[in-house]
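Translate sequence into structure tokens.
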Amino acid sequence: MTWQKWSVVPVWFLSLVGVIIIGAAASADMRVTWLAITLAGAVVLTFVIQIAIQRKERFVARATASIVGALAVVAVATAVFAII
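Result follows.
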């Protein structure tokens, strides 16, 4: 895995950690709000990381991979919370 791909993984990991914390700590009626905040934080973190590495090559691809991965994590968690 190249260093550019490693700039994507922390966003996915922190989204997963956020979802786990929300599942354990948030009440059922507040989960949707916290999931939205988690996704917003993932978007902000994506741009912070991508700007910090200061590489313009494949910026859009890396940012898209980060955001879509975080969206997938939050979407799966939303489906699981809806079933539970």
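Note: The helical segments are 3-6, 9-25, 31-52, 59-83.
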